[in-house]
Write a structure and sequence with these properties.
Layout (H helix, E strand, L loop, with lengths): L1 H19 L22 H34 L15 H30 L6 E8 L2 E8 L6 E4 L3 H9 L16 E4 L4 E7 L4 E5 L4 E5 L5 E5 L5 E6 L12 E7 L1 H18 L9 H15 L1 H4 L16 H4 L3 H10 L14 H12 L12 H8 L1
Helix pairs in contact: 2-3, 6-10, 9-11, 10-11
């Protein structure tokens, strides 16, 4: 009896604690105990919602009619109440009926479905075109047409959320594993074409509120589109099982007003101009290490950790024979081409200076006091 009371008390305490710290619905993202689709933020998503319920109602009505008649007949004409089986003549109108009626129902379902499907695939006359490149485990965004053309950046899970996950007991937060360092930014009311591809395995770019899910396949280019009808933050995740960190590959799209978007584009262009480096420049060790620290924090710390010790199957950089090797071409080859069957991804998307900086930082941080330096020109030569 005492054990039962103790168990009930502890269970109630846990429930009260969890309730007190329960997460809330995330606007533009998942909702607590969500059963239906995410609230639509585009016309296509609204059409998909309508189409879903239209099909559900038709299927439910057919189910009730067919099984209602079947079970009524079974109960009403069962042998136990004196009915005997008999062969019935099958007139031609019955044959025609159960052929023509289902055909008309299928046509009635296919017409609106085809309309929505065709609209989903119509990527013509877009105002902005963005290439979304999936990679283990982040997204690369390149604005290749329209306002903002030339902007490019990586979008990675915010490191604080990875630390929450690594703790094994993450605190409740509405955007858990959905917060990124650099969200995609688009203007409201503009048609945005998304071109998807990948540089390692199959990924999928999916934002439920937009009604968009498009596979990103290595060596192939696919496309989709959306036109957000309202401003706000909208979230999604990679929807293909892409490896051990599939759950750490969120998508965050920030929809802003036209004026805010123009200001964002100007800020991004200024930042890119400031980071534009001459690959022939010869750097000193201190400046390159300082630059490499920021590159490491943005791209490497999630796997290799701030201590350089790695985690689980991720090899450490601190004390690594590859990192400390005087032959810098070995590390350059790994950075450009990846290693361990994709566990270490290729980083060709980084600039020559960024790659040189992060390698120099690794060679001269933690216990790696090699005083070795990798110049951008070394990376340029290795790319050729």
């Amino acid at each position: 009896m005492r054990a039962a009371v103790t168990t009930m008390f502890l269970g109630s305490a846990v429930w009260i604690t969890e309730s007190a710290h329960a997460v809330n619905d995330l606007p533009g993202g998942p909702a607590v105990n969500q059963l239906n689709f995410a609230p639509a933020a585009t016309k296509i998503a609204e059409e998909q919602h309508w189409l879903h319920w239209f099909m559900m109602i038709i299927c439910t009505v057919i189910f009730l009619i067919v099984f209602g008649v079947m079970f009524y007949s079974i109960l009403k004409h069962r042998k136990s109440v004196g009915h005997k089986s008999q062969e019935l003549a099958e007139p031609i109108w019955v044959e025609l009926g159960w052929t023509i009626v289902p055909l008309l129902i299928v046509i009635g379902m296919a017409l609106p479905a085809t309309k929505v499907l065709v609209a989903q695939k119509d990527t013509t006359n877009s105002d902005i075109t963005i290439k979304a490149t999936g990679m283990q485990w982040k997204w690369g965004y390149d604005y290749i047409k329209g306002e903002g053309e030339g902007i490019g950046f990586l979008s990675t899970l915010d490191n604080s959320h990875r630390e929450m996950s690594n703790s094994g007991n993450p605190p409740p937060t509405d955007d858990y594993l959905l917060k990124v360092d650099n969200p995609m930014v688009v203007p409201v009311g503009k048609k945005v074409r998304i071109i998807t591809t990948a540089n390692d395995v199959i990924h999928a770019w999916m934002v439920p509120a937009f009604g968009v899910k498009q596979d990103a396949i290595p060596g192939f280019v696919r496309d989709t589109w959306f036109r957000a009808e309202k401003t706000g933050d909208f979230y999604g995740q990679c929807a293909e099982l892409c490896g051990k960190e599939h759950a750490y590959m969120p998508i965050h799209v920030k929809v802003v007003s036209a004026e805010e978007y123009t200001a964002w584009v100007a800020d991004q262009q200024k930042a890119m101009a400031a980071l534009a480096d001459d690959p022939t420049k010869v750097w000193n060790l201190a400046d390159l290490v300082k630059r490499g620290e920021s590159v490491y924090a943005a791209n490497c710390v999630a796997c290799h950790q701030a201590t350089g010790k790695g985690a689980g199957p991720i090899k450490p950089l601190d004390g690594s024979a590859l990192v400390t090797d005087a032959d810098k071409s070995k590390m350059i080859a790994v950075m450009l081409n990846g290693a361990a069957g994709g566990a270490m991804p290729a980083w060709k998307q980084l600039s020559d200076t960024e790659l040189a900086a992060v390698m120099t930082y690794s060679k001269n941080s933690w216990s790696n006091k090699t005083e070795q330096i990798v110049q951008p020109a070394d990376v340029v030569a290795a790319r050729q």
